[in-house]
Write a structure and sequence with these properties.
The protein has 108 residues and is mainly alpha-helical. It is built from two helices and two strands, in the order H-E-E-H. 82% of the residues lie in helices and 9% in strands.
Length: 108
């Protein structure tokens, strides 16, 4: 029972971490969407951040860069979402197992 409880606590921590990662990727997606919209509206010079420096770039290059970053964020979000969903299933199974043991102990 003690091992199950420890495993359950570890799983809860993992779920929290995955939920935070998921939220971060969702926020990134929104930021990239907003950036893409701003680039599309741009009529003058376009600047892009590259490793701590801000450089002038073409509208096309900036759009390409944002799309690549969006795709990367989408892929990572998909991976984290899958891990999160699997962890939720494990959590449910483990919780049911713990509850079953507790009921059995209470009946004795």
């Amino acid at each position: 029972m003690e091992k199950l409880t420890i495993d359950y606590q570890k799983l809860q921590s993992q779920l929290q971490a995955l939920a935070m990662q998921k939220e971060q990727f969702l926020l990134q997606k929104e930021e990239f969407k907003e950036a893409a919209e701003q680039i599309e509206k741009a009529t003058g010079k376009v600047y892009s951040a590259k490793g701590g420096a801000i450089i002038e770039t073409t509208k096309e290059e900036a759009t390409k860069n944002i799309k690549e970053r969006q795709e990367s964020a989408d892929m990572r979000l998909g991976i984290v979402t899958k891990q999160y969903d699997e962890a939720i299933k494990k959590e449910k199974t483990l919780r049911e197992e713990i509850n079953s043991i507790i009921k059995t102990q209470q009946q004795q």
